């Protein structure tokens, strides 16, 4: 009788832990977001630029995953950005009315000439109802003829993250503990006989 109570207590504890794990699952952001607008650099010569400010920034087409429902033309606010040296920038962009924000953590200039600038890096994408999700991004700008207000495009996508195990680890641990309890009960019963 005592073994049955212990066994029931173990089963109840494992079930409770399993349900708690189910509720603690992460909800990462998935997909790719494309935005574009106008960039003003700190120098007219793009090959010497080290920072930029942005205007007329909107969501473009080709978005996927959690960004797919954002209409083309939705306004995006962007903070100024220093890329030489690489500078962390919280709130680099925010999609107005949709709660998605990108916090830039690192960048590197991949290519910089008088007419083209290409930068890539990593960051963290946040959104209402989602967990902060690591992301990768690409920024490109073209300035033919040294125009001081060239167009730019910025794409950000989420990095693959580990898949939650849906509480399977706790359930396997519980099954092992139940097995040990049953084995212990049989040993105890055999020892009394």
Number of domains in the coordinates? 2
Task: Please give the order of strands in the largest beta sheet.
Answer: 3-5-6-7-8-9-1-2-4
Biggest sheet, open or closed, and with what strands and sense? 9 strands, antiparallel
Give me the Rg, rounded. 27 Å
Helix content: 10-25%
Average pLDDT metric: 80
Structural class: alpha+beta
Q: Please, could you describe this protein's structure?
A:
By secondary structure, the chain is an alpha+beta fold. It folds into two domains: 2-17 and 165-192; 32-158, no CATH class. The chain has two helices and nine strands, in the order H-E-E-E-E-E-E-E-E-E-H. The protein has helices at residues 2-23, 168-192; strands spanning 32-41, 51-59, 76-78, 81-82, 89-95, 101-112, 116-126, 133-142, 151-158. A nine-stranded antiparallel sheet has the order 3-5-6-7-8-9-1-2-4, with no helix packed on it. A hairpin with a 5-residue loop joins strand 5 and strand 6. Helix 1 runs antiparallel to helix 2 (168-192). The mean pLDDT is 80.
């Amino acid at each position: 009788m005592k073994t049955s109570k212990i066994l029931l207590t173990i089963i109840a504890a494992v079930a409770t832990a399993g349900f708690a794990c189910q509720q603690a699952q992460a909800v990462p952001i998935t997909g790719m977001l494309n935005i574009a607008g106008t960039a003003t650099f700190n120098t007219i010569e793009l090959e010497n630029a080290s920072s930029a400010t942005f205007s007329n920034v909107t969501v473009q087409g080709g978005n996927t995953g959690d960004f797919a429902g954002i209409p083309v033309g939705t306004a995006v606010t962007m903070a100024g950005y220093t890329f030489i040296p690489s500078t962390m920038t919280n709130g680099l962009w925010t999609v107005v009315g949709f709660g998605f924000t990108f916090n830039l953590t690192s960048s590197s200039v991949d290519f910089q000439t008088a007419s083209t600038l290409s930068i890539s890096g990593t960051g963290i994408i946040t959104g209402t109802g989602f967990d902060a999700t690591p992301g990768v991004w690409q920024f490109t700008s073209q300035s033919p003829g040294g125009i001081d207000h060239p167009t730019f495009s910025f794409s950000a996508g989420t990095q693959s993250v580990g898949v939650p195990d849906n509480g399977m680890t706790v359930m396997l641990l519980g099954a092992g503990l139940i097995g040990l309890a049953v084995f212990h009960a049989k040993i105890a019963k055999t020892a009394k006989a």
